[in-house]
Specification:
Rossmann fold; S-adenosylmethionine-dependent methyltransferase activity; Cation-dep_OMT; O-methyltransferase activity; SAM-dependent_MTases_sf; SAM_O-MeTrfase
């Protein structure tokens, strides 16, 4: 009798588990990346508390990589050395329309460190918004350094200018108000090809390939181009998602993977950043 009860209980749990797994796999990939089944939860609940995942391809030796959960991300942010002026700008931007476009503090810290490691003097940013990432870069540039900041939205630029002034870095920043592609072409026509050390792109996603080609002309050999949003909320890995922006980023990533003119590293920070070094 006891063995029969155990068997029935096992069958019931197995059936529930199969239904739960089926439900999980019915979600789009972008959702499956966020929601992970966790053995520590009861009643077959989904949770974001699981902290590791691994590639489906066993050739990667089931290497487990960490998944950033909200508590873990809070911990990361607590370990970011964010200057007070950047904190003020971030908090003001948080109340503005489109605030999700602002890079995160951990991303800005990485950008600033790359500029310092490179010993960059001349930089370009394509897509400034309210200036959080450009300010982070300008703060670590030497006094003689220069950052060309390309942005088409005048209202956002007003906020950026205010904080450049407050931080005392206005003399390092050359603002180009208008279409970024036109600004980059003008720099090339002005004889500035191969004279820049570093570039960061966080602008119109469907223009990524054009921006990259123009920046590749402006950046010196050994210089770095960083592209933001290359994971696009996980949509690039979900073949069921085929809107124009996702397709554009997916194609750009594919082209970059095959581009022998640069060395690349895709980094899962923020919404994904690819660091490119010009060969």
């Amino acid at each position: 009798m006891a063995s029969s009860l155990v068997a029935n209980r096992f069958a019931f749990v197995l059936l529930k588990t199969e239904k739960t797994v089926a439900k999980f796999h019915s979600f789009p990939l972008s959702e499956r990346l966020r929601l992970r089944p966790c053995k520590f939860k009861t009643k077959n609940q989904f949770t974001t508390n699981c902290c590791v995942s691994s590639a489906h391809d066993e050739k990667y030796s089931n290497k487990q990589v960490i998944s950033v959960t909200p508590p873990l991300y809070d911990y990361i942010l607590r370990n970011v050395r964010e200057p007070e002026i950047l904190r003020q700008l971030r908090e003001e931007t948080a109340g503005m329309r489109g605030s999700q476009m602002q890079v995160s503090p951990d991303q800005a810290q990485l950008l600033a460190m790359l500029v310092q490691i490179l010993g960059a003097q001349r930089c370009i940013e394509v897509g400034v918004y309210t200036g959080y990432s450009s300010l982070a870069i300008a703060l670590v540039l030497p006094e003689s350094g220069c950052l060309v900041a390309c942005e088409r939205d005048a209202r956002s630029l007003e906020v950026a200018k205010k904080y450049y002034e407050r931080a005392g870095v206005s003399h390092k920043v050359k603002i180009k108000h208008g279409l970024a592609a036109d600004s980059l072409k003008a720099l090339i026509l002005n004889g500035e090809a191969s004279s820049y050390d570093f570039a960061f792109v966080d602008a119109e996603k469907r223009m990524y390939q054009e921006y990259f080609e123009l920046l590749l002309q402006l950046i010196r050999v050994g210089g770095i181009i960083v592209i933001d949003n290359v994971l696009w909320h996980g949509k690039v890995a979900d073949q069921m998602v085929n809107d124009a922006k996702t397709i554009s980023i997916r194609n750009f990533n594919k082209n970059l993977m095959e581009d022998e003119r640069v060395s690349i590293s895709m980094v899962p920070i923020g919404d994904g950043m690819t660091i490119c070094r010009k060969r």
